[in-house]
Each structure stands twice: as structure tokens, then as C-alpha cells.
Amino acid sequence: MAANESVAEPHRLTPKGRATRDRIVVAAAQLMYDHSVAGTSLGDVQKAAGVGPSQMYHYFEDRQSLIRAVIAYRAQGLLDTLQSDRGGLDSLEALRAWRDFIVDTHRQRNCEGGCPLGSLVGELAELFPECRGDLAGGFDQWEAAIRTGLHAMRDRGDLRRKADPDRLATALLAAVEGGIMLAQVRRDPAPLETALDEVLDRIEDLRPRRAHAHR
User: Which portions of the chain are predicted below pLDDT 70?
Assistant: First the structure.
């Protein structure tokens, strides 16, 4: 997956330049996920990406611009999980399949590492205002994708008119993030499963009565 463009890339790049920049961002994202932002130096990134200091500073004017590019990359990765083989979250079946994907992913990791985007919040949100804005924007994109699917369900009549897709999208995203955090601490996916199932059960309860009758 190519790394997203961000405010850290004001100029147009050649295909070779973009490939080099993407390689740096991907290497930095993995290192920061494995070892934290504080535990990842520019030298570590250079070595992992196979670039020299001059190349690094050609694409990123400072460490913060690289971190912001990593945020954009991770946010796009989360969006890609919604748009791949699942094709969006516009049905209860798709929502439950997404739930299974999230839970299975963290179970396979033994619940280590946390959310690729959420794991950055504790390190960056209070110390770096620009990074906090980027993180908020990443979560906003993720929430918007969930909200779009829920609005489609309501517009189709798969949810009752009283359903509020905006509030449900926020609740579902909060269930994901809070559930992942508890699963990480406990090394047990049960809190994540519980949080997601409670919100999805609420969404199912908001289906028209005829849908419940034909389950």
C-alpha cells in the first residue's frame, strides 16, 4: 500500500521519488508500531528504509513531518480495511464481518500493539498540536466511512427512521478503540468482542420489525 500524501509533501514527486518516500514512511510506521514513536530514531528509519540522511531530509524537513506522514499512512490503512473485500459497511452482515475481522486480527496478534492509529494518541496528542489535528482527522475519516454505511442502511429502510447514524457511528468507533485498548492491556480479545457486540446488537434492534420477523 502506498503511503498517503500529507502536508509534509508540498512538492510533486517523480515515480522514483514517490517510491522512496513511501518506503521511508512504511519503514517508519512499522518501527513506530513495534517500538513506539519515542523509541524510533531517524537513524533507525534510515537503516530500515535503506536511505541516507540526505534522502531523508529531502522528503521530510524534520522528525515531526515524518510522524505526520506516518499518521496519514496508518489512517489510510484503516480505511482500506473497510473498502477491500468487505465493500463497505452498509449492511448488518457487513458490520458483523468487519467485527469478526477486527477481533480475529487482534487475536492473531495476541492483542499486542493496539490500534495502529490509536496507539499514537498517548504519545502525540498532548505534546504535538499539529499531530493531534492529524490524528483527529484520521479518526474523522474512519468514522465518516462507518457513518456512510449506516446512512445507506437507513435510506434503504434497513434501519428505522428514528435511528441516528451519526451517533451510532461514533458509538461503534468508540467501541473499537476502547475495546482494543482493554484487549491490549488484558491480552484478551473478550473486551473488544463485548464492546462491538453491544453496539451491533443495538443496531440490529433498530431494524424494522419486519426484518426481525424474518430472521
Answer: 1-11, 83-87, 211-215
Cell of 127: 505534546
CA–CA dist 152, 23 (Å, integer) = 37
What are 164-203's pLDDT values in tens digits?
999 999 999 999 999 999 999 999 999 999 999 999 999 9
Hey, what CATH topology would domain 1-72 get?
Arc Repressor Mutant, subunit A (1.10.10)
DSSP-assigned letter for residue 10: -
Q: Which CATH fold topology does 85-213 show? A: Tetracycline Repressor; domain 2 (1.10.357)
Residues of the chain with CATH 1.10.357.10: 85-213
Cα–Cα–Cα angle for 36, 38, 41, nearest 5°? 100
Q: Using the CB atoms, write b or e for 51-79: b if 16+ within 10 Å.
A: beeebbeebbeeeebbbbbbbbbbbbbbe
SS3 at position 143: helix
**Burial class of residue 127 in the structure, from the number of CB atoms within 10 Å of its CB (0-12 exposed, 13-18 middle, 19+ buried):** exposed
Where would I find the H helices in the chain? 15-35, 42-49, 53-59, 63-83, 92-108, 121-124, 129-156, 165-186, 190-205, 209-213
Taking a C-beta distance cutoff of 8 angstroms, is the pair 179, 194 a contact? yes
